[in-house]
Design goal:
The structure is a homodimer.
Chain A lengths: L11 H16 L6 H7 L4 H7 L3 H25 L4 H18 L6 H8 L6 H23 L5 H25 L3 H18 L2
Helix pairs in contact in A: 1-4, 4-7, 5-9, 6-7, 7-8, 8-9
The structure holds a DNA duplex.
DNA sequence: TATAATACAGACAGGTTTGTCTGTCAAAGA
DNA sequence: TCTTTGACAGACAAACCTGTCTGTATTATA
């Protein structure tokens, strides 16, 4: 029943998903068509629609895979060594590397949300929200390390979350890295101010 | 030569620009076609292309008009009464009202930038940058009021700018107002921390 | 060996998009 | 009065888009 181990060609579904991930990230969900995806993935249209009922379902699969990956990275960072400030520093450094490497394409979720706001896509909207709230939670957990109360940690976590989001957005708009550096610095200042509260 | 005073019908160009502004803001540049614009503006396609050589030029005109308006508002706020903290509070309050009133459509410039990243549009990219840098400057000027040095004002201004951007982005993604409230609170904390530095 | 699943190729439908073009009409100014 | 200008109507082209469909080939498993 399930398509478990049985595949004889290099797996068309994976090729499609990988190709779509790259193209969607580079040019956005609306900027890439099915035809280009299947062409670059070297597959047939019938094969595509065998694995994905619609283009939107491909988008969902892409965002879901990306979300699992990013959440795993945040989890590893949380569980790793170092203080919260160290981890924040590392997180923003990695963010800068990621943005520069992807030619300042910004956050795939935010970018997708701006395109799919109209025309149904309720599942996509939900996915974007879940991802964002997961990142918000990550910063909240970090803030727990140095904030007095849980309530205060929520506040500080939200501050860090906004700095992260703003840095990502404006690095994309301005195609520069200073927003990430500014966010990193502000985050550090925020944490230090919090410790002597 | 110039189209100065002479118009006999209620001015088709204005109608097109006004209609486009509304539709672009509601559904994004890529989500609205020429046909819908001219239909809702009750004009003809030939008239449209008489005033705007391309769809992109219409987008430029839209963003330019919006930029002038928003810059004027910021200037008035800067010149108005009250402390910098008062002005920041007011600014974020107005931002929340704006986002809620426009059904959390976020920043038109950022939204446009995600769509037009590919396919030329060098002028549009420049317009987005100019707008963003103008807002950055606004926060920098506010920070000058309570920051010790000009250098420090630049840093604090950037922090505020990122909070603003993050709040706008995440209010759009999550369709809620708390990011704006969190940004307002963090901005206030930042200012107060700066004063006793 | 037979079956079922996966893959391929590519035509096709029906819709959208931007932009061009032809031609008519009304009114302001020379 | 005549010319110019802006506006109107709408057909049309050419390119895209998503999704359907027919038909064939390969291969693992029952």
């Amino acid at each position: 029943m399930k398509c478990v181990t049985t595949t004889r060609k290099p797996n068309a579904r994976d090729r499609i998903l990988r190709t779509a991930a790259q193209l969607f990230h580079e040019r956005g969900y609306g900027g890439v068509g099915i035809n280009e995806i299947i062409e670059k993935a070297e597959t047939a249209k019938a094969t595509f629609y065998h694995h994905f009922p619609t283009k939107e379902s491909l988008c969902e699969a892409w965002l879901e895979a990306a979300h699992e990956n990013s959440e795993c990275n945040r989890q590893k960072l949380l569980e790793g060594p170092g203080t919260a400030i160290d981890k924040l520093d590392l997180y923003f450094s990695k963010l800068g590397e990621y943005l520069a490497a992807s030619d300042f394409r910004g956050c795939p979720y935010s970018n997708t949300a701006t395109v799919t706001c109209t025309g149904g896509g309720e599942a996509l909207v939900r996915q974007v929200m879940d991802h964002k709230l997961s990142i918000r939670d990550f910063f909240r957990k970090l803030a727990m390390e140095f904030s007095g109360s849980e309530e205060r940690a929520r506040e500080v976590g939200d501050s860090l979350f906004l700095l992260y989001s703003g840095a990502t957005t404006e690095a994309q708009n301005l195609r520069v890295l200073w927003p990430v550096e500014a966010a990193k610095r502000t985050a550090r200042e925020l944490c230090e101010a919090e410790k002597c509260r």
